[in-house]
Amino acid sequence: MSRAVVADAVVVGAGPNGLTAAVELARAGLSVQVYEAAGTVGGGARTEELTLPGFRHDPCSAVHPFGIGSPVFRALPLREHGLEWLQPELPLAHPFPDGTAAVLARSVGETAASLGARDAGTYRRLLAPYTGHWDTLAADFFRPQWAGIPHDPYRFVRFGLTGTPPAAVLALRFHDAKARALIAGLAGHAITRLGQPFTGAMAMMFALAAHENGWPVARGGSQAIADALAAHLTELGGTIVTGTTVRKLDELPPARAYVFDTSPTALARIAGLGDAYRGYRYGPSVFKVDYALDGPVPWTAPAARRAGTVHIGPTYTEIGDALNRAVTGRAPQTPFLITAQPSVIDPSRAPEGKHVFWAYAHVPHDWRGDATDAVERQIERFAPGFRDLVLARAVSGPPALAARNANYVGGDIACGAYTGLQAVLRPRLAFNPYTTIRPNVFLCSSATPPGPGVHGMSGHHAARTVLHHLRHASRH
After folding, report:
1. Which residues contact 98 (CB under 8 A, 6 or more apart)?
2. How many CB atoms lie within 10 A of CB 237?
């Protein structure tokens, strides 16, 4: 005898995508249960006292250019549940050894001016066709690229023609080192070679996000995003069970649909999908250090002191070499660093006069080394005296990242390599990437389009797929 259905949908994993899927299903009138292995919700959007009491760190994502611009987050009443975006004076600074910096500012003009006279016009022309059109561009790019007619076909095609080539090609439009380094740093968020197709689009989307919506932090930490989603879900009647690791599908209560905010590997193991994702590849990892500081980072470039995010890697060549080493399995030497300093804009993150700061370098998949010294030597190049301010540090290499979040296989925080066709066709070649070979089992993690980032759009699209499936099933 089959077990009686106790929920319309069960979601496994309470990261931003799992919670978004649960909220969307609950808003459609379904009964929803969420199961999370950790003691709290959050996934890649958590905030914890990793170093010292009173210092609130984000173990993974801290700055959210795609969160504030997410079509689904904008449609949900997250502010009513405590989510407040805080904008630093500058979204991003990219300092250089001479004490100057390129900046990614809220205005295209200020950004262009920081790149020098020869490249200012090029930058303006690159972004001009898209500024003021975030809503339609986001709707078109935060979805499977083959899903229907674009909302703005002209800009969709034009952006694609410009951004599909690698960042290496995009950088050739510029004459001087500052602009090329800025483009390389933005593309570096993909954690792949600069010669990889679609990295140009990554750089352009990050730049456009800054000009349209900024690169904000959530007041109090990234946990506020997950907490707001969870509060809204509870308000809608959904339930969340934490501290429960799901190892097999039959450990879950009977439901009409099961939605997984997990890696494809975990989904296949739990749901008995065999080798359905055998071709899926995981990419390089990061080596992350969270710092409790006795004061602000002493950047030599004044612009860096006003920025929420700081990229460290003075030349296109140096950034490219650091990424190549991570992709090809070589230990970091002079790492490219992505750093965040949330307490510049949110003093609640640390005791009065103190600061939190994090930095990560790119390293090979499942790398077991220690890059702490390499990271701090690189920071000291642009902020002499930094080490003197360190009160405590929490170090997380690939094994620690994977232990903290099972979706980070081998420490891959993107939940899948951004290479080849997998950059756009994830997690497998399928008409609908959120479905699986089992008709009532679905995937909603960042292994599905549109990919990594705290934006909830993978969960949104998966929920729409589930709703379509359930409506179809009810008619037959």
Report:
1. none
2. 11
> Cα(384)–Cα(307) distance, rounded to whole angstroms?
18
Q: How many other CB atoms are there within 10 angstroms of residue 145's CB atom?
A: 13
Amino acid sitting at position 113: A
Q: What CA–CA distances, in Å, run from 409 to 216, 270, 371, 417?
A: 27, 15, 19, 11
Q: For residues 342, 348, 353 and 359, what is the CA-based torsion angle, rounded to 10 degrees? A: -20
The pLDDT of residue 2 is 47
* Preceding omega of 296 cis (within 30 degrees of 0): no
Q: Is the pTM of this model over 0.85?
A: yes
Q: Report the pLDDT value the prediction gives residue 187, as an integer from 0 to 100.
A: 97
Predicted pLDDT of residue 149: 82
Give DSSP secondary structure letters for 427-451: SSS-SSTTB-SSTTEEE-STTSTT-
The candidate with the shortest Cα–Cα distance to 471, out of 28, 12, 32, 22, is 28
Between CA 86 and CA 407, with CA 191 as vertex, the angle to 5 degrees is 80
Query: For residue 145, what pLDDT is reported?
Result: 63
What distance in Å separates the CA atoms of residue 95 and residue 41, rounded to the nearest whole number? 36
What the block records as the tokens of 450 is 């549109």
Give the Cα separation of 462 and 153 in Å (integer).
24
**What order do you get walking across the sheet with 355-363 strand by strand?**
101-104, 90-95, 307-312, 337-340, 355-363, 285-293, 390-396
Residue in this structure with the two tokens 């905030």, named with its chain if needed: 47
**Bridging pattern class, strands 337-340 and 355-363:** antiparallel
Report the candidate in 221, 73, 227 with the shortest Cα–Cα distance to residue 135: 73
Who's near 425: CB < 8 A, 6+ residues apart?
433
Angle between helices 16-27 and 457-474 (to 10 degrees): 40
Model pLDDT, residue 68: 97
- Contact of 426 with 416, CB cutoff 8 Å: yes
Q: CA-to-CA distance for 407 and 241, rounded, in angstroms?
A: 18
| Interacting residues of 28 by C-beta distance below 8 A, sequence separation 6+ | 463, 467
**What would the DSSP string read from start to end of 177-237?**
HHHHHHHHHHHGGG-S-TTSTTHHHHHHHHHHHHHHH---EETT-THHHHHHHHHHHHHTT
The stretches in the chain having pLDDT less than 50 are 1-2
